[in-house]
Specification:
The longest helix has 12 residues. Helix content is 25%, strand content 29%. With 150 residues, the chain is α+β, with helices and mostly antiparallel strands. Strands 1-2-3-6-5-4 form a 6-stranded antiparallel β-barrel.
């Protein structure tokens, strides 16, 4: 069986069918003209708004009795939990600059429990940020870049 390349119109029709939008001849014709062939310009224009997030928090301490529950005698085979690290916990994530005055949106789970938050701008610059608010239900957090950043 010979394969042929799918047309952009076919891809657009599939998307419209999945979204439940009307699929009449007029809808297909309008969709064919509004579907972009290439997203590279859009991505390039918005890429500077994408930033990295470094969230640092206190070292994790296990709860008493935490860890795997092993049958008697298996602890020697699998090893016992060793001493816990005293290094600070670090989480990495991404975010988006949403305003010119320094507000950044990221995921709540990235900054949850952090005592220090930094935003990576470009490849070699980090800016301290303050947590403005969170919504754990939607996993969203709002940060503000510190004014004392250079």
């Amino acid at each position: 069986m010979q394969r042929t390349a799918a047309s952009p119109l076919l891809g657009t029709l599939c998307v419209l069918a999945l979204t439940g939008l009307p699929l009449g001849p007029a809808a297909a014709q309008d969709a064919a003209f509004s579907a972009p062939e290439d997203f590279s310009e859009m991505v390039e224009a918005r890429l500077p708004a994408v930033v990295g997030i470094i969230a640092t928090g206190p070292a994790a301490t296990p709860a008493p009795g935490a860890g795997p529950s092993l049958p008697p005698g298996f602890g020697d085979f699998f090893g016992r939990p060793g001493p816990q690290s005293s290094r600070p916990r670090q989480a990495l994530g991404s975010g988006f600059v949403i305003s010119e005055d320094g507000y950044v949106v990221t995921n709540n789970h990235v900054i949850d429990g952090a005592t220090e938050i930094e935003v990576m701008v470009g490849e070699d610059r980090t800016i301290p940020a303050e947590l403005v608010g969170t919504d754990p239900a939607t996993d969203i957090a709002l940060l503000e870049l510190s004014e004392d950043a250079d």
